[in-house]
Amino acid sequence: MQIGIIGAGKVGTTLGKYVALHGGNVSGYYSRTGQSAQEAAQFTGTKYFQSLGTLAEASDTLFITTTDGEIPKVWDCIAAKDVQGKVICHFSGSLSSDVFSNWEETGAFACSVHPIYAFSDKFTAYLNLKDAVFSVEGSREALDRMQGLFCLLPNPIVEIPTGQKAKYHAATSIASNFVVGMVSMAVGLLEEAGIPGQAAYGMLKPLVENNVASIFAEPAAAAEGKAAGGRQKAYQGCQQALTGPIERGDLQTVQKHLQSFCDPKWERAYQAVGMLVAELAEQKHPGRDYGDIKKLLEYGRT
Fold first, then answer.
1. Is 271 within 8 Å of 234 (Cβ atoms)?
2. Pick from 47, 1, 56: which is nearest to 27 by CA?
3. What are the strands of the beta sheet with 87-90, ordered from one edge?
4. What is the dihedral of CA 64, 66, 72, 75, to 10 degrees?
5. Cβ proximity of 8 and 31 under 8 Å
6. Model confidence pLDDT, tens digit, residues 119-167
7. What is the pTM of this model?
8. What is the enclosing helix (H) or strand (E) of 137?
């Protein structure tokens, strides 16, 4: 497999470095911005291509690592060339391989790969990429051909249905961006309570980190199974990690929380997420009645 990379931003530069370090063959880079492509090629020890056509000729696999909006435009340029038998792969989290319109007619094979990972810096992000899960979808032929690369990488590979890409991406966004939004809301509330921003972050840090660690902790039974030779990973999960007034059924505290909000957006966010927490609490404690708390969260303060 000879991989040509179109786009020399954070994702393209990181992937080129990462693949090369694990023994993959990277032809080099093409980008509308020649300087960025030259920079990426130098960093990865590969070649800078001055045209898309020459990169395509030198590669049997093309990675499109541009922004989502540019992917269809790049595909239109690629599809006009001889791509018979080549694998065309983009790295968007939200778009599926369906973005490659009429790919069957070109003789190419289409797929997408999405590392569940925050590409923060294009010169250092490759260092921790080994911890990321790669989700993949697309034509069977393309994914079979990509196995040659996947076998070189230490990353877990999870195949998802092409028609479920938007739902998949919503899940990853919630677990990433939405968590940041909720922490921002918590910091804002502490600031309203008179606590400076940096102090607020310091107060919340152990709380957030311990909760996340609790969700992804191994339950005792799983740890014992692992010691006995079991290999399947298991996590404690959200139900067991759940704590707080909603889980305890503390109606008065939840009422006070709702009455404390000055920003209607924050109140609505509390109600929506609080309802999810209440449903999770019901699963954890099927014998408890959470009806009053759910009614309060649905209709708001009284």
1. no
2. 47
3. 47-48, 25-30, 2-6, 61-64, 87-90, 109-115, 134-138, 157-159
4. -30
5. yes
6. 889 999 999 999 899 999 999 999 999 999 999 999 999 999 999 999 9
7. 0.84
8. strand 134-138
